[in-house]
Amino acid sequence: MRIAMIGSGYVGLVSGACFAEFGFDVTCVDKDEDKIARLNTGKMPIFEPGLGALVAKNTEAGRLIFSTDVAAAVAAADVVFIAVGTPSRRGDGHADLGYVHAAAEEIAGALSSYTVVVTKSTVPVGTGCEVHRIIAAARPDADFDVASNPEFLREGSAIGDFMRPDRVVIGADSARARDVLGRLYRPLNLLDTPIVYTSRETAELIKYATNAFLATKITFINQIADLCEKVGADVTDVARGMGFDGRIGPKFLHPGPGYGGSCFPKDTLALVKTARDAGVPVSIVETVVSFNNARKHAMAQRILQAMEGGAKGKVVAVLGLTFKPNTDDMRESPALDILPALVAAGAEVRAFDPEGMDEARKLLTGVTFAENIDAAMAGADCLVLLTEWNQFRSLDPAEIKAAMRTPVVVDVRNVFRPAEMAAAGISYTSIGRPSARPAN
């Protein structure tokens, strides 16, 4: 089968490369001519471990090509995936479907034989019906079906998530479409991957419900961390004790500065809007959204409070800018709220991130970007660990103290051990754990 992937961003590029690895002929299309030109020379527009090698392998094999010609790609395809952006719409937070609708119109004009059109983008319930309406109105003669196949890719481990998924969700209302998409995912049969067949609307809601639940889990442990600080408990042990319960599990029970990224913030907002429009408010998710927004500002205040005498004129070293490790994605990163607050308080902020510096420079002003960890820490009055990249985990407390002018560390990811930091003579603040102060 031949696949056309409309949109060569994070989801489209990863999915296209992985389908090519399955052995299918894939054309990834994008209107950004510069992006396509760079992809054709082997340059990745995003950082994702293993993606460059996978793209190179399948490009060389002739199974993966990149183009700006939507019509040609669609005309030759058996399956067309819509993998364009669905950012939050200004004003009400709902998903902006402008790119999805535009893609549907272009697809309609190029259909040449039976084709399954699949929404891979994260879209609100009912979008599949609207895509079907757009195509049918433009091409009453076209032989096609519209299906939903939501992605569950985690940035930093997306290739593994595609190749070894927990499940594949296929929302299709015709047996013909289900058969085509079932054949696309047949390579996963060797792994006994569950294939969940549903209606389009159910598949669309599964994606939003999944992300909202995970965001809720993060918010829950963040609130428990705040409680731990008030009652003298240790959130690390609380989370560990909870995680052993098979009904709960340990994942996403890690307190921090709040969730960010391209999915959770916009998907929780979109679900809230969908539920309100349906007259069934999801008050739990509404609270999650509100608390998470406030959380980032609360973390900035925590950092400022850790510096005795205020932040004015002091050097604050920040390690980590992306919303999570193993990505260069700065979208909705806590850094975008925290660093401006530190600058506004009069601090000189020096920041370093292994992959996010180029994007951060476009989004943050008044910040000095250090070449490496040592340059960021040198002579600092406060060190903030904001993203838990592995290279930050290996930092030695004694070396941290030796590099700094004032040994104050605020660790919002609970990477270090309080006792070790105190023993090294560092005033240490973390999340949901007793603060550590060096012995006098």
Could you characterize what this model shows?
This protein has 440 residues and is of the alpha/beta class. It has three domains: 2-198, NAD(P)-binding Rossmann-like Domain (Rossmann fold, 3-Layer(aba) Sandwich); 208-290, Orthogonal Bundle (N-(1-d-carboxylethyl)-l-norvaline Dehydrogenase, domain 2), CATH 1.10.1040.10; 297-429, 3-Layer(aba) Sandwich (Rossmann fold), CATH 3.40.50. 44% of the residues lie in helices and 14% in strands. It has helices at residues 10-21, 33-40, 51-60, 70-75, 98-110, 127-138, 158-163, 175-184, 200-231, 235-243, 264-277, 283-306, 335-344, 357-363, 373-377, 390-393, 397-403, 418-423; strands at 2-6, 25-29, 64-67, 79-82, 115-119, 144-148, 168-171, 195-198, 315-319, 348-352, 367-369, 382-385, 408-411, 427-429. Strands 3-2-1-4-5-6 form a six-stranded parallel sheet, with helices on both faces. The longest helix is centred in the middle third of the chain and has 32 residues, at 200-231. The N and C termini lie far apart (71 Å). The model has no long low-confidence stretch (mean pLDDT 95).
CATH topology description of the largest domain: Rossmann fold
CATH class of the largest domain: Alpha Beta
How is the main sheet built? 6 strands, parallel
Give the class from helix and strand content and strand pairing.
alpha/beta
* Helix percentage range: 40-55%
**Second-tier CATH architecture of the largest domain:** 3-Layer(aba) Sandwich
CATH superfamily of the largest domain: NAD(P)-binding Rossmann-like Domain
Shape: elongated
End-to-end separation: 71 Å
